[in-house]
Request: fold
Amino acid sequence: MKDLSQLISGIPASVTLAVNDKANALKAAGHDVIALAGGDPNFATPAHITAAAFKALESGANRYPGPMKGIKPLLEAITDKMAQEHGVHYNPDADVVVTPGGKWAINLALGAVLNPGDEVLYLEPAWVSYPPMITLYGGVPVPVSLPSVDNFRVTADLLRAQITPKTKALMVNSPCNPTGRVLTQDEVDAIVAAAVAHDLYVIADDIYEKLIFDGRSHISLAAQPGMQARTLVINGLSKSYAMTGWRLGWLVGPAPVLKVAARMNSQTVSSAANFTMHAAVAALTGPQDAILEMVAAYQARRDFMVPALNAIEGVACRSIEGAFYLFPSFPNSTKDSLELAEALLDKAGIAGTPGIAFGASGEGHVRFSIATAMSELERAVERLAKIAHEL
Reply:
């Protein structure tokens, strides 16, 4: 047989999915595993959203949607959201593409703007899929390594040090997976200054924007002066509305880029599922109480876990401002993060994601998801306290 694709074969498998698979295999074999590696909220999709999906199916929303890039009510709901929440106004007919999940929206953004050899900066630690996706579209992933000792803070100097004449775009995720950091206005200003000065696209992954604690607010990069024409906003329903399995996301941005993205969408996935688009309309235009309840629950879990982890000798955990991940380090350990994650699973039955999966600046850390029941988090703390000295 002839060779397989060298490009695709060279793309690493998702470490987070690999850890989840191993944890699930151990569970299936009868082991008591506490799964803290994934990012799947342990809440049910709000009932009014599910009801809207059933109603849509009963009304015939089981055919191709029209238009394929998104039904009109959803395109309008997305642009209304951007206007009401961030003061940024878009044309629903030209500036939005609905996608089967936020991950595909990122693919569309990269595919629409990249040519072979273009460099894309991304803030590291970063979600594991960013570098492979950049590579898939001919780009060169360039990490902007944010130091742990400075709580992974973005600075103008760190950005400038990585920008070259080949730099085409900068990827930003706030709140951040895996660090739980929420960008401050000073950090946003540094990103804006770099993007404007060097004529960069900014790909803003806002998938966790609703999950922010302590009264903080999400700062929209698209809403900053001079940024709407160069910012591609990725968002979706997976995290904030507990709809990971519904696979519904979207890309919003300037019409020339979205025209190319819509063409790419039509020649690949065609569209998101029709009935999920109707559910998305209900999500965006209906009651938002469920989000407040989830945020309160995540904040309570954070408030339990952070001091509980810090009380364990050999574990250091900063507090987080958003999302639902903790990123503790193990300063006394001689193990790297892969070995730490392996030891946690083998010795304590705790599945976490090794920090190195998120880039070199994540080494020494393990990501724990708090998108699980408090009772499971309490058990995890008890188990970790018993074996921490072995790490």
User: Anything to note?
Assistant: The first helix runs from residue 6 to 9. Residues 64-285 form a domain with the Aspartate Aminotransferase; domain 2 fold (CATH 3.40.640.10).
